[in-house]
Amino acid sequence: MLNHQLVLKPMKRIAFVSIIGLVALLASCGTDTAPKKEGGITKDSVRKMSIAHIKKLEGEMHQTMELNNVTAGLALTAYTEFANLFPDDSLSADFLFKAGEVATAIKQYPQALSYYKNITDKYPTYKNYVMSLYLQGFLQDNYLNADDKAKEIYTQVLEKYPTSTFANDAKAAIQNLGKSDEQLIKEFKKKNGQK
Questions:
Q1: pLDDT in tens, 84-132
Q2: What is the pLDDT of residues 45-95, one digit of tens each?
Q3: At CA 115, angle to CA 87 and CA 81, rounded to 5?
Q4: CA–centroid distance for 67 within its chain
Q5: Contact present, 84 and 118 (Cβ < 8 Å)
Q6: Least buried of 2, 28, 47, 123, by fewest C-beta within 10 Å?
Q7: Please, what's the b/e burial string for 47-65 (b: 16 or more CB within 10 A of its CB; e: otherwise)?
């Protein structure tokens, strides 16, 4: 017998995300820039609802060891909608970074790349800016088979941020681009005097 709660729970989430999107659309369509409209929806209330929804989804994602793809997808949507609605908000870059992590975890590598690229394009003072740049190279290198693009990004990290914690990683990654696992193991053994 089909458990109706299992069917209804994802439907409730989708409905909630749709409602948030509709509320956000309505709030952003208004030309009234006053912080509060009597009897209406304010941008601040949409922001608070969005953050509460994101926290709820993050709580659900952290409840189990294995990431649920439906919940992850809802979180990606919530993170993206927040960043689109509130691009100047201090949380937007953090949410895009989290979106990159979640997308990587569910093997949506091109999507993860776009989140990190969005950060480096729009948030140059973000605390994880250099890491976001490095991760673009890492994704290109390890998951998207784009060694040329990876090298270009790793070189940027080395040249623009030579004292960052990612400079050494970028240098090592450049040296290992295009090498198979077998080649890397062989080089490691040779370097450590093993046969």
A1: 999 999 999 999 999 999 999 999 999 999 999 999 999 999 999 999 9
A2: 999 999 999 999 999 999 989 999 999 999 999 999 999 999 999 999 999
A3: 45
A4: 15
A5: no
A6: 2
A7: bebbbebbebbbebbeeee
Reading the block at residue 68, the tokens are: 């649920």
Concatenated DSSP letters for 131-192?
Answer: HHHHHHHHHHHHTS--HHHHHHHHHHHHHH-TTSTTHHHHHHHHHHTT--HHHHHHHHHHHT
Assigned token pair, 119? 């950060």
Amino acid making up residue 27: A
Burial class for 1, CB neighbours closer than 10 Å (0-12, 13-18, 19+) = exposed
The DSSP-derived string for 83-139 is HHH-TTSHHHHHHHHHHHHHHHHTT-HHHHHHHHHHHHHH-TT-TTHHHHHHHHHHH
- Domain boundary assignment for the chain: 10-29+40-95
The rounded distance, in Å, linking the Cα atoms of 64 and 156 is: 37
Q: Which of 101, 100, 158 is nearest to 130 (CA)?
A: 158
Taken as a whole, the chain contains a residue count of: 195
Name the residue with tokens 């960043």.
Answer: 83
154 near 170, Cβ under 8 Å? yes
